[in-house]
Amino acid sequence: MSTPNNSKIRILAFAAGVCLVCSLVVSTAAVALRDTQEKNQLNEKRINILVAAGLAEPGERLRAAAINERYEKITPVVVDFASGELAKHDDPGAYDMYAAAQDKKTGHAVENDPASIKRMADEGSAYLLIKDDRIERVILPVQGYGLWSTMYGFTAMTLDEGAEITGLTFYSHGETPGLGARITDPSWQKQWEGVVPYNDNGEPQIHMVKGSAKAEHGQVDAISGATLTSRGVENLMNFWLGEQGYESFVRHIQDGEITASSITSANSGS
Question: What is the pTM of this model?
Fold first, then answer.
């Protein structure tokens, strides 16, 4: 006949055994699915680049093979933020500017920080759509704080006759569902097409407004009921298009100082 103390020990032993088995199952699943998760994250990032570049429609579902096929048209580069010139890297596509931002050797604290990112890398990623030996579109990573979270995305622009935005996408955020989360709504993203990002002095001029937005003045309709998220989008766009971000790089392309051929040279490390 078992005593009360023996019963308690058996219950604790059973509970411990169940916890151990569950831990092993969860750990094994996490390890087994790690490669799949990393591939899915990479594909999600590439889909956003393709949408921003106009090589995929917002909300379009693509298989991995189709993503890879279209992504071959994209040329990744690394940009020196201080000079706006190309930085030489053997594999620009593998460069992680957000990881570099956290390293004291490759990143720095941001003093004038309207996007609330705290730190940024000395060099940034950029993606180019090149056709007929001509840079047709520039796709730039953007990052900044909204209401609840840091939002990560891409914006794209053409530079032929003055800069003009062709798209804005977000692939990671924690904004309020139904409100701030509308930054991923294709109908809201579509209104960025044709927005002029720089004023006559070459300064970023993105403004989120309520009603009657004028694209030629850099204005976009703010998201109703999501004032802080809208303000966050405005801040992050002006920051990354500004002098601390990609402004000099954009100007070098417009002035013909960075061309399709110079990009090939930089990416080869020569």
Answer: 0.84
